[in-house]
Specification:
The longest helix has 30 residues. The strands form three sheets. The protein has a five-stranded mixed β-sheet with strand order 3-2-1-4-5, sandwiched between helices. 41% of the residues lie in helices and 19% in strands. It folds into two domains: 151 residues, Nucleotidyltransferase, domain 5, CATH 3.30.420.40; 180 residues, ATPase, nucleotide binding domain (Nucleotidyltransferase, domain 5). It has 349 residues and is an alpha/beta fold. Helix 4 crosses helix 10, helix 5 crosses helix 6 and helix 7 packs antiparallel against helix 8. A hairpin with a 4-residue loop joins strand 6 and strand 7. The chain is globular. The chain is built from ten helices and twelve strands. The chain binds 5'-O-[(R)-(carboxyoxy)(hydroxy)phosphoryl]adenosine and zinc ion. Zinc ion binds next to helix 4.
Amino acid sequence: MLVLGIESSCDETGVALYHTERGLIGNQLHTQMAMHAEYGGVVPELASRDHIRRLVPLTHACLKEAGQTFGDIDAVAFTQGPGLGGALLAGSGYANALAFALGKPVIPVHHLEGHLLSPLLAEDKPDFPFVALLVSGGHTQLMAVRGIGDYTLLGESVDDAAGEAFDKTAKLLGLPYPGGAKLSELAKLGRPDVYTFPRPMLHSHDLQMSFSGLKTAVLTAVQKAEAASENGSLSEQTRNDICRAFQDAVVDVLFAKAKQALIDTGFRTLVVAGGVGANWKLRESLAALSIKPAPKTKPEAVKVFFPPLPLCTDNGAMIAFAGAMHLQKSAQAGAFNVKPRWPLTDIVK
Ligand code: KG4
Ligand code: ZN
């Protein structure tokens, strides 16, 4: 089965083709980053208009890349949400119109499900069950994943998402939008322990997280450093030291909460997904994660999986893949997919 995936939830237009036997055979992406950089953030109206402009040419490029035609497509999957309303409508309108014209089914996909299944697109893929650490620009969540469509929320950020904290802090430090990746590059040049920022909710005894207070701590440090400097501005070294301390704080919290989620669930596989999953420090720390279930026991190794770097941030491949998984699941369930116990409240999924 060949599924066309359409992603348009924010500032990336992604179109991909996933074949259930041959894997990912086409993957086209256009990022609007440069367009929004001028405004220091995503301008929703510009985003929607750009998706409309890109969807058709990207689909043609994707079919060409895969050596396929419209007639080969078995279903069209698209991001139904969450995201920017207008941007989602652009993708939804296109996907639904295309599916209707082709006489094929359309599969609405949850954007975060796309992210959390994206590590399954790697050559070395995780087995179920696993804990997923979803760290994107809009969400920071820990989920227990027992199979396709079987997700339990274990904990999440009560305010800013980790990616949002990276972007806001980067902006505060004068870095161009979107600053998350840039901040993490500068952190490599920062010295350890020059600054120490709080680790919010580290000892909250649950899997909730909070990142909004961190940027206030950074702001205070920046203001102090500026006041103390001769020319009233941050030196490059100080800025890099702050980047490092900020990144260390975020990564420490994500590490501790992910570890606790593994202990609580008893799972020994962790999957990291979403844009912040591209962060080198997070990858480095989690790669060394092990669990000591009780004081006198040996540490147990944890298998940690990351999506391939280009699939960490938004893309159509993860939507095509999630769509294909749902298509297969419903094909397997077939006529036997009845719901003997079906509360009315579950009618809208
Ligand atoms: O998953 P994603 O592409 O979009 C959403 O669904 O939100 O994630 C984008 C987020 C942005 O906040 C961006 O700054 C952050 O991921 N990001 C990073 C890095 N690369 C992207 N944050 C930290 N370190 C990075 N290397
Ligand atoms: Zn995303």
